[in-house]
């Protein structure tokens, strides 16, 4: 790079084909760039080529940009299972401390509390996960049957889930 000139084959810019301008950073220092596009000082490329006019993600032809009810079902079911497990563990801790309050702090008391925490956590996770599964299944079936995505599907799925859940009582 003598005299500030940059040949096509020198350095990494020649390897990647970006050395077409033929100017080094020293040659461009102090030159006003009015009317010209500024070159990136790091990559020696025109930043206009980096502007994205199209969408960021590639979608199949005819696909919508939002997630459908079936895709959201997995998030709903998993979220309800995790929420049920956390709520059940807290409820189990409360019940375990209440049932063993007359016992001294010992291994049997700790085991009873842990048993209550895991039992209640699993019970609540199973219950909420089952409800979420029913709600999601009804929602997907209603959406596919009606062919529309609106609030009526949500209300109908919730109603059918509640009716089926309470039908045993």
UniProtKB/TrEMBL annotation:
Pfam families in the record? Tim17
What keywords tag this UniProt record? Membrane, Mitochondrion, Mitochondrion inner membrane, Protein transport, Translocation, Transmembrane, Transmembrane helix, Transport
First-listed, main subcellular location of the protein, grouped into a coarse class: mitochondrion
According to the UniProt entry, its GO molecular function terms are: protein transmembrane transporter activity
* GO biological process, alphabetically ordered: protein import into mitochondrial matrix
Where's it found, cell-wise? Answer: Mitochondrion inner membrane
Q: Which PANTHER family match?
A: MITOCHONDRIAL IMPORT INNER MEMBRANE TRANSLOCASE SUBUNIT TIM23, TIM23
Q: Which family does it belong to?
A: Belongs to the Tim17/Tim22/Tim23 family.
What does the subunit section of this Swiss-Prot or TrEMBL entry state? Component of the TIM23 complex, at least composed of TIM23, TIM17, TIM50 and TIM21.
This chain's protein is named Mitochondrial import inner membrane translocase subunit TIM23
The protein's organism comes out as Upupa epops (Eurasian hoopoe)
């Amino acid at each position: 790079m003598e005299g500030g000139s940059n040949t096509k084959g020198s350095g990494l810019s020649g390897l990647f084909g970006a050395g077409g301008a033929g100017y080094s950073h020293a040659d461009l220092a102090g030159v006003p760039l009015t009317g010209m596009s500024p070159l990136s000082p790091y990559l020696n490329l025109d930043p206009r080529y980096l502007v994205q006019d199209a969408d960021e993600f590639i979608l199949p032809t005819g696909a919508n940009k939002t997630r459908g009810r079936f895709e959201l079902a997995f998030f709903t079911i998993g979220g309800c299972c995790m929420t049920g497990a956390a709520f059940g563990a807290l409820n189990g801790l409360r019940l375990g401390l209440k049932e063993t309050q007359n016992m001294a702090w010992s291994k049997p008391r700790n085991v009873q509390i842990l048993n209550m925490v895991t039992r209640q956590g699993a019970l609540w996770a199973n219950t909420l996960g089952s409800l979420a599964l029913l709600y999601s299944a009804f929602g997907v079936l209603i959406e596919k049957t009606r062919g529309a995505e609106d609030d009526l599907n949500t209300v109908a799925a919730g109603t059918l889930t509640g009716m089926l859940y309470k039908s045993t009582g």
